[in-house]
Every structure is written in C-alpha cells, then in structure tokens.
Design goal:
- Helices cover 41% and strands 15% of the residues.
- The protein has 489 residues and is an alpha/beta fold.
- The strands form three sheets. A seven-stranded mixed sheet has the order 7-3-2-9-10-12-11. Strands 4-6-5 form a three-stranded antiparallel sheet.
- Helix 5 crosses helix 10 and helix 12 packs parallel to helix 13.
- The structure holds S-adenosylmethionine (SAM).
- S-adenosylmethionine binds next to strand 3.
Length: 489
C-alpha cells in the first residue's frame, strides 16, 4: 500500500504524468452516471455554443499535416471516417467534462466547511477507506477498469456530508461555488439525490485509490488513468513556475523578441480541487495572469499591447476567464506545497513565489478570512489594462482551431496529459496551425513520441528545462517544461 499522506497529492497533479509517475515514489510531498448533459453546462455558465466566435472552427482532414494524415489512414481512420472520429472525440469530451463537474461537487461536498459543521473529509483518505472496506473478490473487480459500482453504498460520514451539501443547494446563496453547483444540479432533471451521486463518488474513489495507493504504479499505468478520467479544472501556481523558467529561456535565446498575442489552452480554475480546498476566497483563475506577469517581468511584452486569450472545453472555466476583462480582479496566491524544514522550496521557486503578480498589479491586504493559512503568500489587485487584454472562449484543442494563424506564444500545461496519442497529435497540429512562423509553444508533457510528432508538423523542440520546486536534494519535486518554435517554412 502507498505510504503517501494527503499532502502528497497536489504535487502529483502539478507535475506532468511522466514526472509524476517517476517521482511519485520519490519525493512527491503534496502537491490532485452521467445525467447532466453538456448542453446543461452551457446553460449553467450562461454561454451558448454560439458564444464562440466564427473564427473557431472544426478541423478537417485536409487541415492536417501529411504525416498525421498518413498516420490516421494507417490506423483505420482515412479521410471518409475522420469526421466520425472527431464527433466521437467531441462526445467523449462532453461526457468527461460533465462527469468532471459532478466529481468537483463530490470534492466540494467532502471538504467545504461553508455548509456544514461536520468534519472535513480528505477525498483520498475516503477513497482508501472505501476501497479497503470492500471484500474480495469485489475489491479486485472494482479496481478493474470494468469495475462497476459496489453494492455496499455510501460510507456514512460521506453520505451525511453530501446530503448536507444538497440541502445547502436548496437555499438562497451568494457563494460562487454553491451557486454554481445549485444551477448545475438544477439543470439536469432537477431531482438529484445523494444516491444519485453515488456512482460519481465511486468513480472518484477508484481514480484516487489507483493513483495514490496502488503500490508500484508505473508511468505506463498512470498515463491511461489520466487519458480516460473525467476532466478536472484543478490548477495551482506551481504550474506557472516552469512556464516562467521556459519564458526565461525564450528571452535568453531571442532577447529582442516581443510577445504580443498569447493563447492559453486549458487555463483551469481553482474551484473545488481534489485536495486542499480553499474556499475562503472566490474561485481563482491563475494562469492567464501568471503568464502575463512573467512576460512583463521578463520584459518580453509591453502591457499596452499584450493580449492573452484563453480557450477551454469547460464552460465554467470559460465563464470565469472571460469575466476578468470586465470585472476588477484581486488574485490571492496560495502555494500548493507547504514549505517545511524537511521539504524546503528551492531558492528559485521561493523567489518566483515572492515576486508573483507584482508585474501586473499592486499588493493589497489579505482578506481576514484567510487567517493563518500556511499556503497563503500575498494578494494582488490586477491593473485594469492587464485584465482588459484578456479574453476567453470555448474551444476543444483536439478538434477545433481558431481560423487565423497568429499567436506568438501558446502555453498548455497539465492538459495534454488527458489525451491519448492520437488526440495529442491533433492538438499539436492545431496549436502549430495557430502559431505564427517563429511562434513558441511551451508545455510540460514529457511523453515519449511527442517531440517527434511535433517536429513532423514544423514545431521542433528547442530546449527542455527542469523546474525544481523544492524538497530534499535527494528527492526533489520538479516539473519539466518544453519549448518548441515553429519553423518558417
Ligand atoms: C488540469 S487543468 C490544468 C489547468 C492549468 N493549465 C494548470 O496547469 O494549472 C486542465 C484544463 O484543461 C481543460 N481541457 C481539457 N481538455 C481540453 C481540450 N480538449 N481542449 C481545451 N481545454 C481542455 C480542462 O477543462 C481544464 O480546465
């Protein structure tokens, strides 16, 4: 059985799958029944598919580089079948987003103290108790991919918390998370019960148990877990550190280069994470801001003409990312990892965190509700000009692209890991098409074959860097960032 405590989980999330799997046994301190259709999610978010501008379009076979066309043809999806394949990817994505939203509700119901006085339940601890309460052969069957839903039903404490959460959703609230879940649950058939969420809890328990507590889990075993799991919008500031270092490399390679148009694929939203929920502040969208901050701090961009566009398949994320241009934003920075004597931050990471946000705004006082949270760093009121340069829309990076070529930089972290190899190839083709010649791609996906696939679409890798976040020297926590540049011809 795994010996990791709950502190170890968020780190697993921040690292890419390969580094996760290879390091998970190393340092890994801490630091991550489908009834609601995606049409309902669109309704909840106040978005409609038509919100996406006409510039966003589905790809066609003819849009693909020759190497990718040949690959799809060789794998049984030549041109006539390609649109059917894309439709299947869209359907799967919608299901994964919808399942993910219900999983976020489970995480919220187990951890939040805003609607109940019952003790918080750490989701991974709950998963372990649940799985270990199953007798053989049911346990083995459950952990198989075709595991089904155990007949034992909800554990008592978990059931009680979820019941309290559903009761809270019946009341009037101004809390952003409760309001969202209230609308989400009302948008199905309106009659969600605790038992109606049992299958979602079971899915959560299976994923967390397999990821955190299955001994000897290898990179090859972790990868399919992510490639098939429900979509999560979890995000932490640790993801920004590798991007910052990657941008430093870009600046060193081309000191005169100016970045004006940036695309963030899958920015995520810290809303109801699978561990360490912090809901004393509003949901936090970090990535568009931390990228703008890094670009301004490194003098790669000028505030006056910096445009940061975000795209995501989750309408909730898109709604939050889109609203920042119109609404004053104060960011509250929390680290995912707590620095301790045994597991200190690296000097570079500590410097990164101290400076975070200071190039895009002004430090303001912490909200009193944050109290003595050890993860809290500081709060930044973002300048209006910075946030007005931001925009967001729904786009599936596997099946869609924006019709014009022209981004100077695309950043995609902790997203590609959710795709299988074919989906990854299409995502890279779409990213390559949206970059201008000489444009850069930054990502943290260390998967075998990615470099070759990217090179086949004129997106060769330039540099790779390891971003050491902290931990003992013998077992550091790190992320790996890859910088590609699109060739001119
Ligand atoms: C785990 S979060 C990562 C957030 C952030 N990039 C980070 O590193 O902290 C993954 C995000 O990617 C989005 N996503 C997943 N599949 C996507 C796709 N096919 N196209 C666009 N966004 C996608 C999810 O909705 C989610 O917001």
């Amino acid at each position: 059985m795994g010996t990791m405590d709950t502190k170890e989980m968020r780190i697993c999330f921040v690292s890419s799958v390969v580094s996760e799997a290879s390091n998970v046994r190393v340092f890994l301190t801490r630091l991550a029944h489908l009834t609601v259709l995606v049409s309902a999610l669109f309704a909840v978010s106040g978005l409609t598919a038509s919100t996406a501008t006409a510039r966003v379009g589905n790809i066609e076979y003819a849009d693909l580089p020759r190497a990718i066309q040949q690959r799809f043809a060789g794998e049984g999806d030549p041109e006539p079948r390609f649109s059917g394949y894309l439709r299947q990817v869209e359907r799967d994505t919608e299901r994964r987003v919808a399942e993910g939203e219900r999983e976020h509700l489970i995480y919220y119901a187990l951890q939040s103290t805003r609607f109940t006085r019952r003790a918080r339940i750490e989701p991974a601890v709950s998963a372990r108790r649940f799985v270990e309460s199953l007798a053989e052969p049911e346990r083995t069957r459950f952990l198989d991919d075709a595991g089904g839903v155990p007949s034992r039903g909800w554990p008592e404490a978990e059931r009680a918390r979820v019941a309290d959460a559903l009761d809270a959703l019946k009341r009037v609230t101004t809390d952003a998370r409760l309001s969202y879940f209230k609308q989400l649950m009302a948008s199905g058939d309106g009659s969600v019960s605790v038992d109606g969420l049992y299958a979602d809890y079971v899915r959560v328990a299976r994923f967390l148990y397999k990821k955190e507590f299955t001994s000897g889990v290898t990179a090859a075993e972790v990868a399919p877990l992510y490639q098939t799991r429900a979509h999560s919008s979890d995000t932490q500031i640790e993801a920004g550190f590798g991007v910052y270092l990657g941008l430093g490399v870009l600046h060193a390679l081309e000191p005169g280069r100016r970045i004006r148009r940036v695309l963030v694929v899958g920015p995520g939203l810290d809303f109801a994470p699978r561990t360490d929920l912090i809901d004393v502040v509003e949901p936090q969208i970090y990535q568009p801001f931390t990228i703008a901050d890094a670009l301004l701090a490194l003098s790669i961009s000028a505030e006056a003409d910096l445009k940061v566009a975000s795209v995501d398949v989750n309408p909730r994320v898109v709604r939050f990312a889109d609203a920042v241009a119109r609404t004053p934003v104060t960011l509250h920075f929390f680290t995912g990892v707590i620095e301790t004597r045994e597991q200190p931050f690296s000097a570079d990471y500590r410097d990164y965190v101290r400076a975070l946000g200071r190039a895009i705004g002004t430090a303001v006082r912490a909200p009193p509700a944050i109290g003595a949270d050890k993860r809290y760093q500081h709060s930044i009121a973002v300048r209006e000009q910075v946030r007005r340069g931001m925009s967001a829309e729904r786009l599936n990076i596997i099946t869609e692209r924006v019709g014009e070529e022209g981004f100077d930089l695309v950043v995609v972290t902790n997203v590609l890991t959710y795709f299988d190899d074919r989906q990854l190839a299409l995502a890279l083709a779409n990213i390559a098409a949206m970059l201008r010649p000489d444009g850069y791609l930054l990502h943290n996906e260390s998967r075998a074959g990615l470099v070759e696939t990217a090179a086949s679409m004129k997106l060769p890798v330039l540099q790779m860097r390891t971003a050491i976040i902290g931990g003992p020297v013998s077992r550091p926590l790190y992320d790996t960032v890859w910088l590609h540049r699109k060739t001119r011809t």
